[in-house]
Amino acid sequence: MAWTEESVEILKAMWLEGRSAREIGERLGMTRNAVIGKANRLGLSHKSKSTPARPVIAADIKNRAMSPLDLNERMCRWPIGHPGDADFHFCGRARVPGRPYCEEHCAVAYRGKAVEAAA
Ligand SMILES: [Zn+2]
């Protein structure tokens, strides 16, 4: 079956609603692969669970960016960016108890030493 203007419109509308390619295919009498292929050619990104969440996560990280004044004793002091830059901040996530950094940054900070000790 060829794509008509109408079926492309339905594909776009359903795709943006977050319907699955299988659902759209059933509606249009297409295979799932045909729907996905067409959507890719139309430049539609797949509305999976993770896609709509991404901008929210990015905004969240921006809001959580800490200036040194916002840091408290339970926050990771890992510097992000270069001191003096407008976007310089500290990580600010929860520290590993007894360490100045969060889990992720402890892994970075202490990796060198661990390698040395193992060598
Ligand atoms: Zn950190």
| Beta-strand residue percentage | under 5%
Helix/strand-derived category reads: mainly alpha
Indicate the CATH class of the largest domain. Mainly Alpha
Strand order of the largest sheet: 1-2
> What is the ordering of alpha helices and beta strands?
HHHHEEH
| Rg calc | 24 Å
Q: Which ligands, by name, code or SMILES, are bound?
A: zinc ion
Rough shape? elongated
| SS element count, helices | 5
Overall pLDDT: 79
Number of strands: 2
> End-to-end span in angstroms?
64 Å
> In percent, how helical is the residue content?
40-55%
Profile the largest sheet.
2 strands, antiparallel
- Total of domains: 2
Overview of this protein structure:
The protein has five helices and two strands, in the order ααααββα. α1 (5-17) runs antiparallel to α2 and α2 crosses α3 (32-41). The chain folds into two domains: 1-60, Arc Repressor Mutant, subunit A; 65-118, no CATH class. The chain has helices spanning 5-17, 21-28, 32-41, 50-64, 103-118; strands at 79-80, 89-90. The protein is elongated and about 65 Å long. With 119 residues, it is mainly α. The chain binds zinc ion (ZN). Zinc ion binds next to α5.
